[in-house]
Write a structure and sequence with these properties.
The complex is a heterodimer of chains A (about 200) and B (about 180). By secondary structure, chain A is mainly alpha-helical. Chain A is about 70% helix and about 0% strand. The radius of gyration of chain A is 22 Å and the shape is globular. Chain B contains seven helices and no strands. In chain B, helix 1 packs parallel to helix 3, helix 5 runs antiparallel to helix 6 and helix 6 packs antiparallel against helix 7. Chain B starts with a helix and ends with a helix. Classes of the chains: A mainly alpha (about 200), B mainly alpha (about 180). Chains A and B meet through helix 1, helix 2, helix 3, helix 4 and helix 5 of A and helix 1, helix 2, helix 3, helix 4 and helix 5 of B.
């Protein structure tokens, strides 16, 4: 694993003085995490700029492909864990945005939706990594709640913005409105209620 | 903006293996390695390696309390990067996550009925919806657009609906597997 000195050197290469991020009171592991977090954060912004500064969409796609290139990389078990980590990162990012907006005014419907979706992605990838079982009832229900919440919120927001009729047929919406079965009744057998006709 | 030389310095300091980039440019062919593309490729590689190292940092150590502290020290909620546009950055990171999840799909194709691949597909759809929603957040207020960005809203709603069906499938498959085990 990369040590603190090397992380400092990498930050220095970007012109960032890491001294401000070092707190003598921190355990070494915490300092290292802080430095790695800062480096990840800065490089993430630089990567975005390297890609989005393209002046046409063809060039944008070429740059994206170069940055995300993974030719012949086998699907490693570790990738799932990394995706889970990336989902956590995105969730933290959205939490920070939400906190900023809440401090200065109200949190918009779309941002609130994004926050619930980020939580759902985290849980879905967690279930994917750990091999789902019926022991994870709480996780399943949280995901479905998050998605139902997001669905209603985004749909209401669109209606609000356009003042028009719903953008999806009522039949689709009705599936979401069905009350979910309480945990206590759901455990055990797969009931017909879990299946979409 | 960071220079290619700066990225190469990081690559050297962190001892990152750049074989993959060379492979990539061999793969796409000659004349495709313009300075901007090399820079994007280097930034992408460094970002990925740092992401993996950050994850290692957070996972290292045994005590739970320490893990919590480390995670908090590294999270976007704590770290501040100067001059950043957090909203645009969130969109970008959602794009990246969608790509990451897509690359986890088995090369042999479609989603199986086993719970894990259905969950992965559900995560992919949910991430796609999150990406769309974050774009809506980052864009100008929709009032200026006549149709209220109908295409984006429909796409997000459809992605969510797909995710929900996939989760039900995964749930059912997990329950069936549990029943078979007795």
């Amino acid at each position: 694993m990369t040590d603190t000195a090397r992380l400092c050197a990498a930050l220095a290469a970007l012109g960032i003085d890491a001294a401000g991020s070092m707190d003598g009171a921190d355990a070494p592991g915490v300092t290292r995490a802080r430095l790695a977090g800062l480096l990840h954060w800065v490089v993430s912004g630089e990567l975005r700029e390297a890609i989005t500064s393209a002046d046409c969409s063809d060039e944008f796609v070429r740059r994206w492909n170069a940055a995300a290139a993974h030719p012949d990389v086998p699907v490693a078990a570790e990738w799932s864990v990394q995706a889970w980590f990336d989902a956590h990162w995105l969730d933290g990012r959205i939490c920070a945005l939400t906190a900023d907006n809440a401090a200065t005014g109200t949190v918009s419907a779309v941002l609130d939706t994004a926050a619930h979706l980020a939580e759902a992605i985290k849980i879905l990838l967690y279930l994917h990594v750990t091999s789902p079982s019926s022991e994870h009832q709480h996780a399943w229900l949280t995901v479905l709640d998050d998605l139902a919440y997001a669905y209603h919120r985004i749909r209401a927001e669109h209606i609000e913005r356009t003042k028009t009729s719903p953008l999806v047929p009522d039949a689709m919406s009705a599936r979401w409105d069905r009350p979910r079965v309480p945990v206590s009744e759901r455990c055990g057998a797969a009931s017909a209620d879990n299946i979409d006709a | 903006m960071v220079t290619t030389a700066q990225l190469k310095a990081i690559v050297a300091v962190l001892k990152i293996d750049t074989t993959r980039i060379e492979q990539y440019f061999r793969y796409v062919g000659d004349g495709r390695d313009s300075p901007a593309l090399v820079q994007a490729a280097l930034a992408g590689l460094v970002y990925r390696v740092i992401g993996a190292q950050l994850r290692d940092c957070l996972a290292a150590g045994d005590e739970e309390a320490g893990a919590e502290l480390r995670a908090r020290a590294a999270s976007p909620q704590t770290v501040a990067a100067p001059g950043e546009d957090p909203s645009a950055q969130a969109v970008f990171e959602a794009f990246w996550l969608v790509d990451r999840i897509a690359s986890m799909r088995r090369p042999d194709g479609h989603a199986g009925s086993d719970p894990r691949s259905a969950l992965l597909e559900a995560a992919a759809s949910t991430a796609a919806a999150a990406r769309t929603v974050l774009r809506l957040h980052d864009s100008d207020p929709a009032d200026s657009v006549p149709n209220g960005r109908a295409a984006e809203f429909s796409a997000a709603v459809e992605d969510l609906d797909r995710a929900r069906v996939l989760i039900r499938t995964a749930q059912l498959a997990a329950d069936e597997a549990a029943a078979r085990r007795g």
